[in-house]
Amino acid sequence: MLRLVANLRFKFKNRLIMLKRFYDGFVLRYPKSILILVLLTIAFCGYQIRKLEIDASAETLMLEDDPDLRISREINERYKTQDFLVITYSPKEDLLSDKTLDTIRRLKEELIKLERVESITSILDVPLLESPPKPVSEMVKSVPTMESPDIDKTLAKKEFLNSPLYENNLVSSDFKTTALMVNLHDDHLWQDFIKRRNALRTKEKEGVITAEEQKQLEKVSADFKAHRDYMRDLDNKNIREIRAIVEKYKGDADLFLGGITMIADDLITFVKSDLRVFGTGVLIFLIIMLWIIFRQVRWILFPIICCALSVIATCGLLGLVGWEVTVVSSNFISIQIIITMAITIHLIVRYRELAASNPESDQRQLVLDTVLSMAKPCLYAILTTMAGFSSLVFCNILPVINFGWMMTAGIGVSLILTFLLFPTIQIHMEKKRPNTSFESFFAVTKKLGTYTEKHGTQVLLISGAVLLFCVGGAAQLMVENSFIDYFKDTTEIYRGMKVIDQQLGGTTPLDVVLNFEVNDNNPVAKETMVDGEEDSEFDEFEEEFEKEKNKAQYWFTSDKMQQVEKVHDYLNSVPEIGKVVSLGTMLKVGKTLNEGKPLDNFMMALIYNELPEEFRKIILNPYVAVKDNQVRFAARIRDSEPNLRRNALLHRMQREMENDLGLKKENFKLSGMMVMYNNTLQSLFNSQIMTIGAVILALMVMFLILFRSFKIALIAIFPNILSVGVVLGFMGWAKIPLDMMTITIAAISVGIAVDDTIHYIHRFKKSLPLTRIM
């Protein structure tokens, strides 16, 4: 180990000599040429910023290669679930008044004309099966709606409030709010791109992809991205048009727009705003602080120039390589500005020190000495900061991984640009005596140093106690957060989601799919069979049955329907679930139509086969897959419930469906956004542990190389551990959940803490020999 450290020390000395030759013989000899070359490079990067894109799709919230994502896509395709937007409508008058219904009618007529809109589902056009109740055979021939002549509004209101199809779903329990489902046209091309891309990606990861397939993957990925961008523009246009229409009707009612497509579109707007607001806000704050500290224009302008050019260069490189900004990485500009500012301030402070202590030195010598003296600590500070952000690659969430790489690349760009811009700009400026008035007025570091020198043991004890306190807080960290809490309560997203969540049955989708046993698919065969008897007549029947087994008249058996009702009733009993719609919903409505008696096989098959297609798409097709011998239960979780614990809920449901309902584990599956988002949250805790472990290990190795002392390395690592501990401990005690946003805080805090650590210890080691001589 000592030999390794000695070799590294020898190599570093040689590199320091080479660095001096580089600056003295090249950079300071041709400063104008270097500056022009740097500015041209940044101009090229600035041109590439136009390629920088923002991705706020639901996929950015998912784990990479999450099998539940694949299952969810299969379910959506099988049950033809459309993308849709929701408009909540709360009129000042009665919900079924002529004026209200006419307003909804006119709103529908305007919305249906839009290019992306396929259909509208509202209280005007859903089937009214109990207004009044009719025999099943008569009902399927003529299903009334609110648009039917002579409809009884009293019965209709009763049905809306009490029907399992509509209560807390299409209308609120107080009958003051209804929902309009704006169904969008299916994007079959997107589905095709996803299938082809994922199939080729799987081959690539397994190492069995051919050269031709690799080219296909590159083409499919490029085509998918182009199509996605086109659809984003189309969806943005559609949402703006819908909002313009909705705005005209807000005089007599409260209307809010919701839906995943709208949220994704708004998130892109929010991220763009955050990039501007955070970056500008940090810049203004730093300008004020620079003026207070340095009181000289050159030391305000230079850091601002470095920060601006570093951000431009980084954004251009990100656009060039195709990395996209997500909600997680939307603050990378402000963080890069802070770190770039730290590098420039270290150089400025060192230059001012040298100018004050060596008044006889000329500007060239001062610039050279400044760069050479700060090269080592700044290099190691940046390398360790990069190590901190690089540790985010251990997370399984793609946006977090990309954020780690983005910050790593950005910090590297900041280091290179700052150490090129400082000498090439300062060499053209005259030497000026530094203004040190602030240092004498506000010497916090000096006071802290004096206190530490006198009460070192006390500081260590307090630090140890704080660390233990923070460990206790970190042990209480939760990986739980409501999606609605990501938005301010003044935003339309928040207000719309809250109405849907609390009044219309919940927001977060949870699908439960139930596969029936294969033997259940052949009830007639089982009843025909006689013990020990097999004849040709039965063989012929079985052969014909196999051809017809997916026909509704053979599929709707009493055993299946009992099992569907049992699962449906269980899901309805789960407190965290707001609304459940399934085939069980239709069975409950059917009992009402059949004088309280369960529908028999014939009646269910009659409804399935004879119900008009427009109504089948609403109450049957999304929940029954006869061909696949499967049913789907569409539940929605109330995301705003303060006591919601997703992981515990899913595990409890899995256990109760096995133990209490007697279902085999392989015969049912929980899926949907609820499951995928929970998978993401649960991966965060393990990822955070791996991130912190990787950071501490990397820092310890780099401290050993830099300081060549195990003792000093331990001293250096402690404040970094303490900084992470304080952040996570505070989050634990304050009940701030760990999520995709807060998982980056540990890496950020280490990145900032390690910079100060290295500069303090480097300066200490450099000053120690002088102290001994004195």
Explain the overall architecture:
- The structure is a single chain.
- The longest helix has 37 residues, at 211-247.
- Mean pLDDT is 80; it is low at 520-550 and 770-774.
- This protein has helices at residues 2-27, 31-48, 67-78, 98-111, 136-139, 153-162, 188-206, 211-247, 260-294, 298-321, 332-357, 363-390, 398-426, 437-441, 444-454, 456-474, 492-503, 523-528, 536-548, 552-555, 558-573, 583-593, 601-610, 613-619, 646-659, 673-707, 710-733, 745-773; strands at 84-91, 117-121, 178-184, 253-258, 508-515, 577-581, 624-625, 630-637, 668-671.
- 64% of the residues lie in helices and 7% in strands.
- Strand 7 (624-625) and strand 8 (630-637) form a beta hairpin.
- It is elongated, with a radius of gyration of 33 Å.
- Strands 5, 6, 7, 8 and 9 form a 5-stranded antiparallel beta sheet that branches. The chain has a 4-stranded antiparallel beta sheet with strand order 2-3-1-4.
- With 774 residues, the chain is α+β, with helices and mostly antiparallel strands.
- Helix 26 runs antiparallel to helix 27.
